[in-house]
Write a structure and sequence with these properties.
This protein has helices at 47-53, 63-68, 72-77, 81-85, 97-103, 129-139, 157-185, 193-200, 218-231, 247-257, 275-283, 293-299, 331-335, 338-346, 351-377, 380-394; strands spanning 6-13, 16-22, 27-30, 32-34, 36-37, 58-61, 90-93, 105-109, 114-117, 124-127, 143-145, 207-212, 235-238, 267-269, 288-290, 302-303, 310-311. The protein is of the alpha/beta class.
């Protein structure tokens, strides 16, 4: 039987590496940035743009949000998240664990799982490893995440160890439930997955990734990695970063952990981050990223550019006829001026956050392409240093 995903390394430069992940729905070049589709949509950006212009091969779906609204039964009846949303390429779904701990009200944590009240209407809900696996099976994502507990970034050693132990126990339950669910779902049904699977020489099953926790404690990160790899997953993620800890702590965890992760499996850094963060993580061997920053900043007038981040609301752009980023080839930069985008934003026009979000995603995806090319050339450090130096030179300089 073929694997649910196929991962092959194609080049390396130091710890930085390029590869290809094949799923039943798309071929993904790594390092890859995955736009975040919280509610089954990438906020403000049409799937046509993501497919045709930006060529995003994989996006993220949020188990917690889709579980609460519209609900698993609705999505299951409508054929899974791909059919429901019309997204035809790959989807990675998170487990819901992070959202429970960051968004839910009145949480009650037990060995069984987490009882919480919905942030939408206050209704009582429950999530566990088994329920998370069932939900993600119904969503029919290509990559499923194990259910974990995410401790705060500044958690003490004892509290982090307790959380780590629980995450390992939940990881085992996630895998056991996942295997049962995969067999019972019978994954060659009317979704057409069998034909797509044949085309990519893969079966119709989902892949399951384990999550490494441990906050900023390097000894616990090592232990979490060892125990998670022992269980055995199709890929491995670093969780619990960019949750309030200092940058040097995050970079220290990455440097300590990423190069020790299995070389023959995809390595995923969850929920991170700025372009600088991504480039630093790539230099440590990370393959996959997701973050809400491109669209979240776009909704508040923040644009990422090769010359640093700018805020389109700033008065200096009132008569600026230039594009958001003179080095960007996206359709927004090819057509609209900073002055016009500022006018739209100040006038409260919905086109402003849509257009800036589109550009920001283009910037992130283009940065990943440039990183892949640099690794293939064997000049990744030079590329990274040049990229970061340009950001430092121009930040807040009025570009």
């Amino acid at each position: 039987m073929h694997a649910p995903i196929d991962f092959k390394l194609t080049a390396s430069d130091g710890e930085a590496r390029t590869g290809i992940i094949k799923t039943r729905r798309s071929i993904i070049e790594t390092p890859v940035f995955m736009p975040v589709g919280t509610q089954g949509t990438v906020k403000g950006v049409r799937f046509e743009w993501l497919e045709d212009e930006l060529d995003a091969r994989i996006i993220l779906g949020n188990t917690y949000h889709l579980f609460l609204r519209p609900g698993v039964d609705v999505i299951r009846k409508l054929g899974g998240l791909h059919k429901f949303s019309s997204w035809t390429r790959s989807i990675l779904t998170d487990s819901g664990g992070y959202q429970v701990f960051s968004l839910a009200q009145m949480r009650k944590l037990t060995e069984d799982g987490v009882e919480f009240r919905s942030h939408i209407d206050g209704s009582k809900c429950f999530l566990s490893p088994e329920i998370s696996m069932d939900i993600q099976a119904a969503l029919d994502s290509e990559i499923v995440m194990a259910f974990d507990e995410c401790p705060p970034g500044d958690a003490g050693h004892d509290a982090t160890r307790k959380s780590l132990d629980l995450t390992v126990r939940w990881a085992r339950r996630s895998k056991e439930s996942f295997e049962k669910t995969q067999q019972s779902e019978g994954f060659n049904s009317e979704t057409g997955r069998k034909n797509q699977a044949d085309a990519l020489a893969l079966n119709g099953r989902q892949a399951l990734f384990g999550i490494i926790q441990g906050a900023g404690h390097l000894d616990l990160r090592s232990e979490s990695l060892e125990r998670t790899v022992e269980i055995g997953f199709d890929g491995y993620a670093i969780g619990g970063l960019s949750v309030g800890e200092e940058k040097n702590v995050m970079y220290g965890v990455l440097e300590h952990t990423a190069p020790k992760m299995p070389k023959d499996k995809p390595r995923y850094l969850m929920g991170v981050g700025t372009p600088e963060d991504l480039l630093e993580a790539i230099s440590q061997g990370v393959d996959m990223f997701d973050c809400v920053l491109p669209t979240r900043n776009g909704r508040t007038g923040g644009a990422f550019t090769s010359l640093g981040k700018i805020n389109i609301r700033n008065a200096r752009f009132i008569e600026d006829a230039g594009p958001l980023d003179p080095e960007c080839s996206c359709s927004v930069c090819g057509r609209y001026s900073r002055a016009y985008l500022r006018h739209l934003y100040q006038a409260g026009e919905m086109a402003a956050p849509i257009l800036i979000s589109h550009h920001n995603l283009a910037f992130y995806l283009n940065t990943m392409r440039a990183a892949r090319e640099a690794i293939t050339r064997g000049s990744y450090d030079e590329f990274k240093n040049s990229f970061l130096e340009k950001l430092r030179e121009n930040q807040d300089s009025g570009v």
